[in-house]
TrEMBL record:
<keyword id="KW-0378">Hydrolase</keyword>
<keyword id="KW-0121">Carboxypeptidase</keyword>
<feature type="signal peptide">
    <location>
        <begin position="1"/>
        <end position="25"/>
    </location>
</feature>
<comment type="similarity">
    <text>Belongs to the peptidase S10 family.</text>
</comment>
<dbReference type="InterPro" id="IPR001563">
    <property type="entry name" value="Peptidase_S10"/>
</dbReference>
<keyword id="KW-0964">Secreted</keyword>
<dbReference type="InterPro" id="IPR029058">
    <property type="entry name" value="AB_hydrolase_fold"/>
</dbReference>
<dbReference type="InterPro" id="IPR018202">
    <property type="entry name" value="Ser_caboxypep_ser_AS"/>
</dbReference>
<dbReference type="Pfam" id="PF00450">
    <property type="entry name" value="Peptidase_S10"/>
</dbReference>
<keyword id="KW-0645">Protease</keyword>
<keyword id="KW-0732">Signal</keyword>
<protein>
    <recommendedName>
        <fullName>Carboxypeptidase</fullName>
        <ecNumber>3.4.16.-</ecNumber>
    </recommendedName>
</protein>
């Protein structure tokens, strides 16, 4: 392993592919196998976690957690899941609050009945360095991290991860994620396709992104109408929020440290009317009373769309669980340069203006390259509302000349409507998830699982029950 790690990745991979038959597929990953997570119920699948060094010289390492499929893992695809932020943890948010096999409850873990590892081998990556258990030994590595660096590191991570898990090398691979992962997922997929031109390594079968940031202005400015149509702001405030200062202008000014008095005035009125006691990630959600204080800290002064929030009660349980020494030991996790695991990084200094870089054009390139894309939206989210995503997908379909192959219609989960969907050219799909928050698998786990299963199978969502 150490020899392989010293070589440039591409060379190492070729070497590996040539000698694959000599490598016992379990040897390299054995050290990362999780015997048992503290408090977990008995399960029939394997779990692995640990580090992949993405830069030997600068000592930067990314932490992953793999929950293999509950049944027949060998015949199921590999799915990478990424949370956004930027700077929030796919382990804490994705695995332990959304679609992983367990949820922390007090001192134990309870089984998630709608875990995505029923359908796939789920790989959760804490990225970039400085997030969760991922680290760099030089704190300067946390400065100026941007989309480019993150995408490159994620690519190197996957290349090297396959050295540990050669049994997954040619497996169908899907990349999924939500929120700011609307940047990470397409950007990584694009690098994989470029890499594949020289070394056919990634068997990329599709991407799915939930409530994703794909185009700054369209995504952020759909907030005003969402607030207004859901009764969160008054008519005059809606007018101000769409004329004097729209939300993209506010965020743009905010990140440049130049908030105009007009925007200050408009945003202050918007904040008063929407109230800090309504969860902007699910406008129908009750706030968790004991955690109201921590939630209001989130709301101010940082504009709330930047931090990836989950239900604060769940978050508290996850924070407690992942900060236990015995849990960290079982996960082979280390805290480097920080004393506490946190949901969203306190050390990472991300290039916030990258939020303005569009990724919808990259999504278009992926579709052109034949990669199926699903954009889905929890319809109770006001942070990245469904209307912005729907507009962007429609516009892209028009640009690519894709005709509607599934007309806008309801889809079913069980006997109830799970949401609405439309598919273009049998390759670009949009779906809403009814009653779901920004974190779809957390708030509508059963519907999310139906959506996930159809996506993996390349099928349209169920038309009837
Ligand atoms: C990789 O998978 C494809 C199907 O996705 C299959 O056709 C091909 O033979 C596989 N290659 C190897 C080396 O297993
Ligand atoms: C938002 O405001 C900016 C700056 O005033 C403007 O250029 C842009 O067209 C506005 N967008 C929308 C959707 O109103």
């Amino acid at each position: 392993m150490s020899l392989l790690q010293c070589l440039p990745v591409a060379t190492a991979l070729i070497l590996l592919l040539q000698t694959l038959s000599l490598v016992s597929s379990t040897v390299l990953s054995r050290a990362d196998r999780i015997t048992r997570l503290p408090g977990q119920p008995r399960v029939g699948f394997q779990q692995y976690s640990g580090y992949v060094t993405v830069d030997e010289k600068q000592q930067r390492a990314l932490f992953y957690y793999l929950a293999e499929a509950e049944t027949k893992p060998i015949s199921k695809p590999l799915v990478l899941w990424l949370n956004g932020g930027p700077g929030c943890s796919s382990l804490g948010v994705g695995a332990f609050s959304e679609n992983g096999p367990f949820r922390p409850k007090g001192s134990v873990l309870v089984k998630n009945q709608h875990s995505w590892n029923q359908e796939a081998n789920m790989l959760y990556l804490e990225t970039p360095v400085g997030v969760g258990f991922s680290y760099a030994t030089e704190s300067s590595s946390y400065e100026g991290v941007n989309d480019k660096i993150t995408a490159k590191d994620n690519l190197v991570f996957l290349q090297k991860w396959f050295l540990k898990f050669p049994q997954y090398l040619n497996r169908s691979l899907f990349i999924t994620g939500e929120s700011y992962a609307g940047h990470y997922v397409p950007q990584l997929a694009q690098l994989m396709i470029q890499y594949n031109k020289k070394h056919n390594l990634f068997n990329l079968k599709g991407i799915a992104i939930g409530n994703p940031v794909m185009e700054f202005s369209t995504d952020f400015n759909s907030r005003a109408e969402y607030f207004w149509s859901h009764g969160l702001i008054s008519d005059p405030t809606y007018k101000m929020f769409t004329s004097y200062c729209n939300y993209s202008r506010y965020v743009s000014e905010y990140y440049r440290g130049t908030v105009s008095s007009m925007c200050t005035k408009v945003m202050s009125q918007v904040s008063i009317e929407t109230s800090r006691f309504v969860d902007k990630y699910d406008v129908t959600l009750d706030v968790c009373i004991p955690s109201v204080l921590s939630q209001s800290k989130r709301v101010n002064p940082q504009p709330q769309q930047m931090g990836e929030a989950v239900d604060v009660c769940v978050e508290d349980e996850t924070v407690n669980y992942l900060n236990r020494r015995d849990v960290q030991k079982a996960l082979h996790a280390r805290l480097v340069g920080t004393r506490k695991w946190s949901v969203c990084s306190n050390v990472l200094d991300y290039e916030v203006l990258d939020v303005e870089v569009p990724t919808i054009n990259i999504v278009g390139r992926l579709v052109k390259a034949g990669v199926p894309v699903l954009v889905y939206s929890g319809d109770q989210d006001s942070v990245i509302p469904l209307t912005g995503s729907r507009t962007l997908v429609k516009r892209l379909a028009d640009e690519l000349g894709l005709r509607t192959t599934v007309p806008y219609r309801v889809w079913f989960a069980g006997q109830q409507v799970g949401g609405w969907t439309q598919v273009y050219g049998n390759i670009l799909a949009f779906a809403t998830v009814r009653g779901a928050a920004h974190e779809v698998p957390f708030s509508q786990p059963a519907r999310a699982l139906v959506l996930f299963k159809a996506f993996l199978g390349g099928r349209p969502l169920p038309e009837e029950f």
